[in-house]
């Protein structure tokens, strides 16, 4: 479980995280509150299999913000997090880049309630939950989203539906958090742009970038 506030400052991984992303005292407090909420609510609903403090910092917070090493998030206006679950990566990105407007796409009622509680508790503005499934979202919404992100919540062949010719989001970019075992298939190949590797706790991770070839 989470350490008291003073003890958190003693954790090397916490200090490194705060320093690496140049987080303000307010952002640090928001991340710490969020971490505590994840741990407390995880006992009631299945948010994550990762529950200890250091692993949440690394595998959820650092892993979410690693995107900013490959994309200039300061130039983005709005992102959508597909199948956000406990709010990763959407909420960490919102905390680190407060200007971002964020859509959290999630269909599980208990997770939706948790996400709304986090948004309210952290006093986050410009972020909301869309409680509809992915196919319905890309068919019935039209939001000014710059970038879609997905941390392995849906299979990539399902995510490729956004690039269909009749979809309003077909010209937007998608970034997928992938394991080392993930392999490109014929369905995804036409939209594959590049991949980028990074390390989290000595574990190699990958970002897979997708876009419509005509975009």
If you had to describe this structure to a student in words, what would you say it looks like?
The chain is of the alpha/beta class and about 220 residues long. It is built from 8 helices and 7 strands, in the order ααααβαβαβαβαβββ. Strands 3-2-1-4-5-7-6 form a 7-stranded mixed sheet, with helices on one face. Strand 2 (about 100-105), helix 6 (about 110-120) and strand 3 form a beta-alpha-beta unit. Helix 4 packs across helix 5. It is globular. The chain starts with a helix and ends in a 5-residue tail after the last strand. The mean pLDDT is about 90.
Main features:
single chain; 215 residues; alpha/beta; 8 helices; 19% strand; globular
